[in-house]
Write a structure and sequence with these properties.
Shape: globular
Number of helices: 12
Order of helices and strands: HHHHHHHHHHHH
Low-confidence stretches: none
Mean pLDDT: 88
Largest sheet: none
Radius of gyration: 19 Å
Strand content: under 5%
Number of strands: 0
Helix content: over 70%
Structural class: mainly alpha
Length: about 250
């Protein structure tokens, strides 16, 4: 079988498994719904800060949704280790590189599409419900595409951590820590703060949403797009490390 055909088969297998496991399906649904619910909540409660933007306020819960995207990435692989079906997967698709690439392509693609649709809907809902002219609008384009990309990066980060840890609880705890800790500890590193605090997909997301909470002291002083590229590069490096370990150890 040719490599493209094997890759297509592996991706088809991963899609069947993805939509057959309740935990991944419901976590994905929650990640898609939360941004819109957040927009409704902020608009109806009048809790948006005066210096915030419509875009940032509407996507208040996008940070939580992004964490769920990372959890989905982790569950895609740890669920198979827990059930033992990972052996069946490797038997059906002997190339472990192909398996991991298929998983990464699936979670990244699903999360990108869902996040783009959900966050766009959240922005439109917020724009419709918030009072006209009271808040700065923000620049939704091209920011929404970057926001969706940050969800995809978070999902791949979760997949990499899940591949390394192989246990659901440990992987979920670890990936949430990776999302939150850079912003918490970044200010402790002096001049390196702009790099450390900006290492998390969450930091890139907050900058892209143009929220007033995205202060340099908590999310780093890099711009939103450089921050997203830095996070993507670090996630790619971690995924490659996970691939090396996956190929070397037993299932």
């Amino acid at each position: 079988m040719t490599t493209p055909a094997l890759g297509s088969r592996a991706l088809a297998y991963e899609w069947i498994k993805f939509r057959s496991v309740r935990s991944t399906v419901w976590t994905t649904v929650a990640a898609a719904v939360l941004p819109v619910l957040g927009a409704v909540f902020v608009a109806t409660t009048g809790s948006l800060q005066s210096d915030d933007t419509v875009l940032g306020g509407s996507l208040t819960l996008s940070v939580v949704a992004q964490m769920l995207a990372a959890v989905v990435g982790a569950l895609v692989v740890t669920g198979e280790y827990s059930s033992g079906t990972i052996r069946t997967t490797f038997a059906a698709v002997p190339g472990r590189t192909t398996v991991l690439v298929a998983k990464a392509a699936l979670v990244a693609g699903v999360m990108y599409v869902l996040a783009l649709a959900s966050c766009t809907a959240a922005y439109l809902v917020g724009d419709a419900l918030l009072p006209d002219g009271r808040y700065a609008q923000g620049e939704p384009l091209p920011a929404l595409f970057g926001i969706a990309a940050s969800f995809a990066v978070a999902a791949v980060l979760g997949l990499a951590v899940g591949t390394l840890v192989r246990h659901s609880a440990g992987a979920v705890t670890t990936v949430i820590g990776l999302l939150l800790l850079p912003s918490l500890f970044g200010p402790l590193f002096g001049d390196a703060e702009r790099w450390i605090a900006g290492l998390s997909p969450t930091a890139a997301l907050e900058k892209l949403t143009q929220t007033s909470d995205a202060a340099a002291g908590t999310v780093g002083s890099l711009g939103p797009w450089p921050s997203l590229l830095l996070v993507a590069a670090c996630t790619t490096a971690l995924a490659l490390g996970a691939l090396v370990l996956l190929r070397r150890r037993d299932a």
